[in-house]
Structure formats: C-alpha cells, structure tokens
Design a protein that fits this description.
The protein is an alpha/beta fold and about 240 residues long. The chain has a single domain (about 50-235), classed as Rossmann fold (3-Layer(aba) Sandwich), CATH 3.40.50.150. About 35% of the residues lie in helices and about 25% in strands. The strands form 2 sheets. A 7-stranded mixed sheet has the order 5-4-3-6-7-9-8, with helices on both faces. A two-stranded antiparallel ribbon has the order 1-2. Strand 3 (about 100), helix 5 and strand 4 (about 120-125) form a beta-alpha-beta unit.
Length: about 240
C-alpha cells in the first residue's frame, strides 16, 4: 500500500502601503514635498484683508450714510455714479411706500427710507450677500421703516404690498425677458399715480422708452448724461 505525505507550504504575503500622494493630487499638494507649489505669502496675506468688510462713509442727498460692503457685490468701495445720479432726480414724497428693485447693499432704499419717513420701504435682491449687507446697513444707520429680504424680482414680495414709488439701477445683462418681467410685475404692484424710476446705461435708453411705453402707456426721459440715462413711467 502506498502512503502519501502532506506538505504545508507557507507563502509570505507582503502588504504594500500605497503612497497616497501618488494617487491623490490633493494629498500631494498638502504633503511636505518641498517641490509642491504654494501660493505666495504676500498673496495669502492680501486675501485675509479681502475677506474683511469694506467700510466707508459717503454723502447721499447731502447727508452721510455709513456703509459696510464686501467684494463680489456691485461697486463695493464707493457708491456707483448711476445710483447717485438717479437719487438726484427722484421726486420723493413724505408718504411714499417704495421698493428698491435689485437693492445691492441698499443705497436707493436707504435714501427713500430717510427722505420718506412716513412710508414703508422694501429692499430686495436675488443675491443673498447683497441682502445681508443691505440689512446691516439699514441697521447701522438707524433705519427702522424698512423690510429687506431675498427675492428674484417681485417673486417673494408679499402679495398684499403695493407701492407708490419703484426704483431700480437696472442691470444691463439680465436680458430683455427679465426686464419685462420686472416692469410687468411693478405695474401690477403700483398704485394709481405711482412712479417707476430707472437708471440704465445710455445704450438701453431706447429699449426703456419702448418697453415703458408698451407696459405703462408712457415714458419720460428725465435725464441723460454721458454714461447713464434716467427714465420714468407713471401708472395711470
């Protein structure tokens, strides 16, 4: 009878730990590899400053306002010329209830709140950072007759609200479709005799005349300067 022998063979297994820096670019960048690129120290230091609020004081209709802004919001270091021009030509009334359509960090609505102390003033923008700074600026300047909130046009404005004054530094790049939505919604929310003031770049002045006439049945060029035009429509 043949007998067989059993043999146990042990094969060593070597486990190799992968070099994560080879497979993960992020790990490579964060490693101590002296060859990895790092942003310049002076740029990182500047970035710390850029993350801080921008604070300035500027006169509006002859009286100072204090503003806090940040990078990414339109005209963060000083009030833009278009808004200042528009404010010079708005006929404010003490009892106006106004809306600042696309408020940015708040200058139009803030001016209305101060010039029309008997009214209530709504400031809206679709940019959450603009709304945050507009709210802070109203608080900073002691304006209590304001309501600041996020809204794409009139979409999130309370249905019960109507207005005697609508103001907008109208952005040029949103497209005519969005402009018409602004105008149609404003018309629906304005009281009889209400005024809609808009400042635009001069290249839009003919569009403003045509669209205001189409929506409101009237259009008035209040002022044309070298860069900006102010147009007004009234709800009959």
């Amino acid at each position: 009878m043949l007998q067989t022998s059993s043999f146990l063979v042990t094969i060593p297994i070597i486990i190799c730990k992968p070099n994560l820096s080879t497979y993960c670019p992020l790990n490579y960048l964060l490693s101590e590899n002296p060859m990895s690129h790092r942003p310049p120290a002076d740029l990182l230091e500047k970035a710390k400053h850029w993350r801080e609020d921008i604070n300035f004081r500027q006169d509006v209709l002859g009286k100072p306002f204090d503003f806090a802004t940040t990078w990414g919001i339109f005209s963060p270091q000083k009030l833009d010329d278009g808004s200042l021009m528009l404010l010079d030509y708005i006929d404010f009334e003490q009892d106006d209830d106004s809306i600042d359509l696309g408020c940015g960090y708040g200058v139009l609505g803030m001016a209305a709140a101060r010039e029309c102390p008997n009214g209530q003033h709504t400031l809206i923008d679709k940019d959450f950072m603009a709304v945050e700074y507009a709210r802070r600026n109203c608080e900073k300047n002691g304006l209590n007759n304001v309501d600041v909130h996020l809204s794409n046009g009139f979409n999130h404005v309370a249905k019960a609200k109507d207005f005697s004054l609508v103001m907008s530094n109208l952005p040029a790049k949103v497209g005519k479709e969005q402009h018409y939505l602004y105008f149609l919604d404003a018309h629906a929310r304005m009281r009889k005799g209400g005024r809609f003031y808009v400042v635009t770049i001069n290249g839009l002045r003919q569009f403003m005349k045509r669209s205001f006439t189409e929506v409101f049945g009237n259009s008035e060029k209040v002022k044309q300067g070298k860069t900006y035009t102010i147009t007004m429509a009234t709800k009959d």
